[in-house]
Design brief:
The chain is an all-alpha fold. Helices cover about 70% and strands about 0% of the residues. It has 14 helices and no strands.
Length: about 250
């Protein structure tokens, strides 16, 4: 165990030395960053440069922290979806490699779930699924972004979101239901979800099946959702109460 830790520390020190400005690899870092930022270059060239940049960031923690603003800037302004998809996958590796340095950027990770390209959204959802289920990224306060994927127009993204919540529900004691207030509060104030008809959430065994109905309802008609919950607290709708009285 002690020897493994010593080997790990030695490799980390070697990586830091290689990526220093006067190091063997670090001397090329300014050129790599310039190519990444130059939108006039062909997309395959920029993609290769971005992949190289991410590998350099994985090698050195200090270099990673220094270049994170550039990487997220590229994620936001890069017109080529293939480059953004590459960054989405690389961000997962960087979180595993340097979790403490990526922690302040967690909100930016979740924001990529709203990318205009389905491939980027799918890659980011798969990355976050792996990180959350392995307790590498905190989900509280941001889980509404994952729930929003249940309503994605692409069936593959929606299916993967359902799989995430199904697996996440197996962790601990009802973790999904404990997060429902946060999900409802965030989705009900999200005007970008449109005005789909309210669909009342009914109890079911799989939380991933409940969430789409809840999210559509709260996002579309918060007032109707609140009224429905009040009816449930009073014992259900009028027709449900009449039916119960007749059965007594």
């Amino acid at each position: 165990m002690v020897r493994e830790q010593a080997n790990s520390d030695a490799l980390m020190a070697l990586g830091e030395a290689l990526v220093r400005p006067d190091g063997l690899i670090g001397a090329w870092a300014p050129l790599v960053c310039h190519v990444c930022s130059c939108l006039e270059l062909p997309a395959p060239t920029r993609s290769a440069a971005v992949l190289t940049l991410c590998k350099l960031m994985a090698t050195s923690g200090a270099f990673c922290e220094e270049q994170l603003p550039l990487l997220f800037t590229l994620m936001g302004r890069e017109p080529e979806q293939a480059v953004r998809a590459t960054i989405a996958v690389a961000l997962g590796d960087l979180v595993v490699r340097h979790p403490n340095r990526l922690e302040p950027w967690t909100d930016r990770l979740y924001s990529q779930l709203r990318d205009s390209d389905v491939r980027v959204r799918k890659n980011m959802l798969m990355v976050l699924t792996h990180l959350i289920l392995n307790d590498m990224v905190k989900v509280k306060g941001r889980v509404s972004e994952m729930a929003r994927c249940l309503l994605d127009e692409d069936p593959r993204v929606a299916a993967h979101a359902r799989l995430f919540f199904s697996e996440f529900a197996k962790k601990g004691s009802s973790p999904v239901y404990n997060l429902l207030p946060d999900i409802m509060s965030s989705l009900s104030s999200d005007e970008s979800l449109g005005s789909a008809p309210f669909r009342e959430a009914r109890p079911c065994r799989d939380p991933a099946e409940t969430l789409p109905r809840c999210s559509r309802g709260w996002a579309a008609r918060p007032s109707r959702a609140s009224g429905s919950l009040r009816k449930q607290r009073r014992g259900g709708t009028r027709s449900e109460r009449v039916a119960r009285d007749r059965c007594r």
